[in-house]
From TrEMBL:
SMART domains tied to this protein: V4R (SM00989)
Domain of life (superkingdom): Archaea
Protein name, UniProt field: 4-vinyl reductase 4VR domain-containing protein
Classification via Pfam families: V4R
Residue intervals of the 4-vinyl reductase 4VR domain: 118-178
InterPro entries registered for this protein in UniProt: NO_sig/Golgi_transp_ligand-bd (IPR024096), V4R (IPR004096)
Length: 178
């Protein structure tokens, strides 16, 4: 079973603050799975990725933006990591940040079924990476990569998902440009 750190589950449910009924229902599910409410999860503790999937899907379903909610959530992942466990001071360029995401994924996930990032192209301003999600929507990663670019000072970066396992492709692939 793949696991993810609790801070991401808490983040997803906290973003549902404007949708109180949906937030309460999602929190009830988390409580049934963990005996803890979303705001009491151990932020650095390990939880089944299916719980994170449920939290993300509940947020997307409640949000009037629908699937865009996955991107919004993703954009908040690295600011959350920076606030909770920190980022290395060696990260200087957008490419440094993008390449570090592969390490960040490994640091925040563990267990079976995890596929490490595979870089197809890693040029300054132009990266192609395979990034599959364990048990949850890979739509999150568009936001993760956009959020990383924003942290690196890039406001006009673009992330295009060029392949997706949910569409029959063998992998999920993202083309990141800035």
């Amino acid at each position: 079973m793949a696991k993810v750190k609790g801070k991401f589950i808490s983040l997803a449910i906290s973003l549902m603050g404007a949708y109180k009924d949906a937030q309460a229902k999602a929190d009830e599910y988390i409580f049934k799975q963990t005996n803890l409410h979303y705001n009491k999860l151990d932020q650095e503790g390990w939880y089944d990725t299916k719980i994170f999937a449920h939290a993300m899907d509940a947020y997307a379903k409640a949000s009037p933006t629908g699937d865009r909610a996955y991107v919004t959530l993703g954009q908040k992942v690295y600011p959350t990591i920076k606030k909770t466990s920190g980022l290395p001071p060696t990260l200087k360029t957008p490419l440094d940040y993008i390449l570090f995401e592969a390490e960040g994924f490994k640091a925040n996930h563990k267990g079976n079924g995890l596929k490490p990032r595979k870089f197809i192209k890693k040029d300054d301003g132009d990266v192609i990476v395979e990034a599959e999600a364990p048990d949850y929507s890979c739509k999150l990663y568009k936001g993760v990569f956009l959020g990383i670019l924003e942290m690196a000072g890039i406001k006009t970066g673009k992330v295009e998902q060029t392949k997706c396992t949910s569409k029959g492709d063998a992998t999920c692939e993202f083309h990141i440009t800035w």
